[in-house]
Inverse folding.
């Protein structure tokens, strides 16, 4: 049975803003929070396979909401990007459509909430505890409120945080200087190319599906990704030296239309918020357990060797990434310390 270990009211308020999105069959729009007698149907969209850790958990969340709402809410889950990418469904929610979309901080930034761009930056959070401290902070609550007011997205939770991302290579890179001149696979995303350029690597755009062959053929020397996500793609075979940098910790969650949110009763709002926050807590635990199991499989099946990294040196080398954010970096770091 899923444990609903809800944090303080601050966390519920803060995290409760990123995991929503709904769809309605009662023409619900902005309102005074009054009750709606008809069933409100909310489409929950995510891009993960239905049998993934978070795919299974969001199904549990939907089932729980449907049951506890007494029929006033009906969540329908659409996995594997059936009704759009994360960017698509975020835009749909911002435009007032009744969809609860899977999204991360970078998607929110792309909608115009520039401050959220900092949350995807390198070496911002020390560990999972620091991520959760930030999500429970007044700062995150304020940032989330601005997203609702200015961009039309009510964030329910950004707490569905997967494991950190590490470097896969043919050799270890314990110090940032070790990456000088290394041909490094990156996606076409600014935060990746900027981060690894600062580290002295040579960012090389390669599609995710072509990374294995690029590593095998020497098109690139190294790549990066989370242990859980890279294992089924077998990157550990051509690149079995893994440096545990934890350079990115992606804040993931769900968000919905602020207009639709305002049409809900207070009880409905609380139910959605609580269930998605609790789902995020369960997802975190599932990801963490899976990381340990997957690392063991990598060692046994591909002879992977894991190497520690000088995190402070890496953080110092990538510090210029945050120059454009002014004192917001210090504010986020302080909030992450609890």
């Amino acid at each position: 049975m899923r444990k609903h270990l809800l944090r303080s009211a601050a966390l519920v308020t803060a995290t409760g803003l990123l995991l929503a999105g709904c769809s309605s069959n009662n023409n619900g729009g902005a309102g005074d929070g009054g009750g709606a007698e008809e069933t409100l149907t909310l489409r929950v969209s995510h891009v993960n396979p239905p049998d993934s850790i978070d795919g299974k958990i969001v199904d549990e969340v939907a089932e729980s909401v449907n049951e506890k709402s007494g029929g006033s809410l009906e969540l329908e889950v659409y996995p594997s990007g059936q009704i759009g990418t994360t960017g698509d469904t975020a835009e749909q929610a911002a435009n007032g459509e009744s969809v609860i979309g899977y999204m991360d901080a970078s998607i929110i930034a792309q909608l115009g909430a520039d401050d959220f761009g900092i949350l995807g930056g390198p070496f911002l959070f020390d560990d999972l505890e620091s991520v959760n401290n930030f999500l429970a902070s007044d700062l995150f609550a304020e940032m989330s409120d601005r997203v609702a007011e200015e961009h039309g997205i009510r964030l329910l939770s950004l707490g569905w945080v997967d494991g950190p991302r590490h470097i896969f290579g043919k050799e270890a890179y314990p110090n940032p200087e070790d990456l000088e001149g290394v041909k490094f696979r990156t996606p076409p995303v600014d935060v990746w190319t900027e981060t690894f350029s600062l580290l002295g690597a040579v960012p090389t755009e390669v599609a995710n599906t072509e990374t294995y062959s690029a590593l095998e053929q020497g098109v690139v020397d190294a790549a990066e990704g989370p242990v859980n996500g890279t294992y089924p793609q077998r990157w550990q075979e051509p690149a079995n030296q893994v440096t545990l940098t934890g350079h990115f910790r992606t804040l993931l969650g769900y968000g919905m239309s602020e207009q639709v949110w305002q049409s809900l009763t207070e009880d409905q709002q609380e139910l959605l918020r609580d269930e998605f926050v609790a789902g995020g807590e369960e997802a975190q635990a599932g990801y963490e357990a899976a990381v340990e199991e997957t690392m063991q499989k990598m060692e046994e099946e591909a002879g992977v060797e894991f190497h520690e990294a000088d995190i402070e040196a890496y953080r110092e080398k990538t510090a210029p990434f945050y120059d454009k954010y002014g004192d917001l970096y210090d504010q986020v770091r302080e909030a992450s310390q609890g």
Q: What stands out?
A: The chain has a mean pLDDT of 88. Residues 165-248+291-336 form a domain with the D-Maltodextrin-Binding Protein; domain 2 fold (CATH 3.40.190.170).
